[in-house]
Amino acid sequence: MKKMLGGLLLFLLLVGCSGQDNPPPAEEGAQGPSTESLEALSEVAEKVEVDLPDFAGEAHPKALETYKLAYAHQDVLKYMPCFCGCGDTGHEHNLHCFIRDVKPDGEVVWDRMGFT
């Protein structure tokens, strides 16, 4: 289950960070995540308790879920490289597309990159 969630999280994060409104057509035989697995991720996100940033109020519900999942899985995202071209803004990994920093007191400094 953990591998499935990790794989789906990676897929959602890469898609969310791609900056493309119209993704390229899928290769023949390629399949995305199942409806059931996406629903399972939504259920996981619903259980995450975190105060999202003010700009999240403008976001699509799936973007909000992604931010919650990023918060809940920081330990995974910090090992995932980001390929959206945000390295010139100081991002070192996929986590930085959502969370810029976590202060010693636990305060989260959010990043808008995952929102765009």
In terms of DSSP E residues, the strand content is 5-15%
Write the element-wise H/E pattern from the N-terminal end onward.
HHHHEE
Integer tally of domains: 1
Main sheet overview:
2 strands, antiparallel
Rg over alpha carbons: 14 Å
Helix content: 25-40%
Q: How would you explain this protein's 3D organization?
A:
This protein is mostly helical. The protein has one domain (2-17, 37-115). 37% of the residues lie in helices and 6% in strands. A two-stranded antiparallel sheet has the order 1-2. A hairpin with a 5-residue loop joins β1 and β2. α1 crosses α3. It is globular and about 45 Å long. The model has no long low-confidence stretch (mean pLDDT 79).
What brief labels describe this structure?
116 residues, mainly alpha, 4 helices, 2 strands, globular
Question: What is this structure's SSE topology?
Answer:
Elements: H1 2-16, H2 35-46, H3 61-72, H4 74-77, E1 99-102, E2 108-110
Antiparallel strand pairs: 1-2
Brief account:
The protein is mainly α and 116 residues long. 37% of the residues lie in helices and 6% in strands.
